[in-house]
Amino acid sequence: MRETPYYSYVVGELPEGCKYCVRGEKLVLFVTGVCPRNCFYCPLSPWRRKDVVYANERPVKSVKDIIEEAKIQDARGAGVTGGDPLARLSRTIEYIKALKEEFGKKFHIHLYTTGILADEKALQKLYDAGLDEIRFHPDLFEPNSKFLQREIENMKKAFDFSWDVGGEVPAVPGFGDRIKWFASLLDNMGGRFLNINELEFSETNLRNLLTRGYRPISDESSAIKGSLELGLEILEWGEKNTSLNYHLCTAKLKDAVQLRNRLIRMAKNVARPYMEITEDGTLRFGIAEYEDLEELYELLVEEAGVPEEWLYINWEKKRIEMPVEVAEELADAIEGDVKFYIVEEYPTWDRVEVERIPLN
């Protein structure tokens, strides 16, 4: 077992899908929030627990939205997730085919599924569409699960096709023996890897986890106490007792590496000339807010002498955007009700604002 440069831990080698993911090269394609299971630890937000589609943060209305988002990210692959993508199999097949047709066979696509709906016909369609890697997440954490036997039987069928087959489960404290059982089973079937995720609190699973006695590792973290330690224990055990590759994906990897690298890739393609790209991949620029934007624009150009190419009217957010240096100079020179700020935003579709500094 060794630690990676991505704050995670590995036995053997990283699964192929993870290699792209840690570099920020994987488009996150959320096909549907529909799922045949209701796991107590599911972190999905309420607005995603529906039959909706997202490419990263972008709501999807057509295949064109997915292709455009992949191009903005300079994506070299996609992770197809949900819910369970097989709950909307036709849609999933359509998207996989479209991505392969647009970006070629080397565009790596992996998919997560519970396995409940992964019968032979579904697996054949996924394989024919060009899926490269399939990851099973069986129902290990519910006693007397009514799904587990069917999930395992369907997982066996996946080995009839020449793609990478693996597992992906959270490290739920108290269930180490169940995860080891699944690892042994996967190894005996000929699986390539088991990916283990550090369990985290979210808005939607908080109550379920607290009532079961789980606690965060600190007031500043959403990671669950004991999850990382269990993951490390399983990797140590797996290295001695199986031939699988293992990857322990930590909460820190998701935030400090995966998201950051994706933001940097996107920022290069969406930044306007007046925007700075920070080392974290956010966009930094100045803004001016005023009730009448046309009047303000005219004032800045004609009276303050600001070149038009340095200004952009953002009608949606009701502001004028500009270089930081220009905003700093204007904040000292213009009096009245005009408010100047330096802002930082994610380069994502929803442009989440992460910082705002008032200048006047």
UniProtKB/TrEMBL annotation:
Keyword Transcription regulation attributed: no
PROSITE patterns linked: RADICAL_SAM
InterPro entries, per the entry: Aldolase_TIM, DUF8061, MJ0021-like, rSAM, rSAM_sf
A matching Pfam family: DUF8061
Sample GO molecular function, one term: iron-sulfur cluster binding
Domain (Radical SAM core) ranges: 20-240
Highest taxon of the lineage: Archaea
Keywords from the UniProt entry: Iron, Iron-sulfur, Metal-binding, S-adenosyl-L-methionine
Protein name: Fe-S protein, radical SAM family
Species of the source: Thermococcus chitonophagus
